[in-house]
UniProtKB/TrEMBL annotation:
This is Solute carrier family 25 member 53. SUPFAM superfamilies: Mitochondrial carrier (SSF103506). Belongs to the mitochondrial carrier (TC 2.A.29) family. Keywords: Membrane, Mitochondrion, Mitochondrion inner membrane, Repeat, Transmembrane, Transmembrane helix, Transport. It comes from Alligator sinensis (Chinese alligator). Solcar repeats lie at residues 39-119, 128-218.
Length: 320
């Protein structure tokens, strides 16, 4: 009897770890859960891109109004009146570059962030420290800027009403750029304003990813509906980050709307020109900021909520 009990204890002792490992695979411990998320990251890219695509369709008129305020230092009323005079046919002029860029942004932002985060840390759990999230977000934003700068450049030219007759469509802009020499084609053509774009995107992604998950997790403990913490976290982080970096966006819009050697100014002269045109007032530099909040809040919130929802459910389905 004693021998039988001893054998049962040995079997239970040997079987225990195997049962725990099996449970870890089926239910998903933090390590396996993270691996599943990475394995199924394609789906989060896809739906993140779709969310960005739909968001830009809905918010493009607001974005164009903001752009006119950035260029001309108009009030909201004057910017809307200018767009009204141009007519409905011109309202969505210039939408193709942001549609393409936002779709790419939806795939790049989360995907490259996860890749850089894995590279920077051997930790496979969800508990990455702040410096790791910051660095991964910074590199992700830099990669995003390098890929998307040409799209933003074309978009800013198309949205400038002063360029309507000279550049009626995207093709005319590309023909202008391709007529330059190789160096000029990159420096004053497709990658005009790259320095400020790199700074804005890298800092923006670093700030967004550094605080998105901690804020979401803190809200999740409040007993809110499961989808609400990610929505609020994305909205708050995206909006605050966009507002903080808005002066850089104004500078970029002015630099990238310049075409041709006689128009193109250096970075320092462009900064001086923008500051002078705003009457040396920070309040005028933030013209368009109110509409920026209206556009950024739903865009970032929806994108974040969809990504987090799909990542969580894809991991659960894979583990199931």
């Amino acid at each position: 009897m004693l021998l039988l009990q001893e054998k049962q204890k040995q079997v239970a002792k040997r079987g225990g770890p195997r049962m725990e490992e099996t449970a870890g695979i089926q239910c998903g411990d933090s390590k396996n859960g993270k691996e599943v998320e990475k394995g199924w990251s394609f789906w989060s890219y896809h739906h993140g891109a779709l969310s960005s695509f739909l968001s830009i369709l809905a918010t493009f008129p607001i974005h164009k109004t903001i752009f006119r305020q950035q260029i001309h230092a108009f009030s909201i009323h004057k910017a809307v009146c200018q767009l009204h005079r141009e007519g409905l046919c011109c309202l969505y002029r210039g939408i193709l570059p942001p549609l393409m860029s936002k779709t790419l942004q939806g795939t790049l932002m989360f995907g490259t962030y996860d890749s850089f985060l894995s590279f920077l840390s051997s930790n496979t759990s969800d508990s990455y420290v702040l410096p790791q999230r910051w660095a991964a977000g910074f590199f992700s934003g830099s990669m995003e800027a390098l890929v998307l700068n040409p799209f933003e450049r074309v978009q800013n030219i198309l949205q400038d009403g002063r360029k309507n007759s000279r550049f009626p469509n995207t093709r005319s802009i590309l023909q202008e750029f391709n007529s330059y020499g190789l160096k000029e084609r990159l420096v004053i053509g497709y990658y005009r304003g790259l320095g400020p774009v790199l700074l804005r995107n890298s800092l923006g992604s670093a700030l967004y990813f550094s605080f998105k998950d901690p804020l979401r997790d803190s809200l999740s403990n409040k007993g809110l509906p499961s989808w609400l913490p990610a929505l609020v976290s994305g909205s708050v982080n995206g909006t605050l980050t966009s507002l903080m970096l808005y002066p850089l966006t104004v500078l970029i819009a002015n630099m990238q709307s310049q075409v041709g050697g006689h128009e193109v100014l250096s970075l320092w002269k462009s900064m001086q020109s923008v500051w002078q045109s705003r009457g040396r007032k920070l309040t005028l530099l933030y013209r368009g900021g109110s509409l920026l909040v209206l556009r950024a809040c739903p865009t970032w919130g929806i994108t974040t909520a969809i990504h987090d929802f799909l990542t969580e459910n894809a991991g659960r389905d894979r583990r199931g």
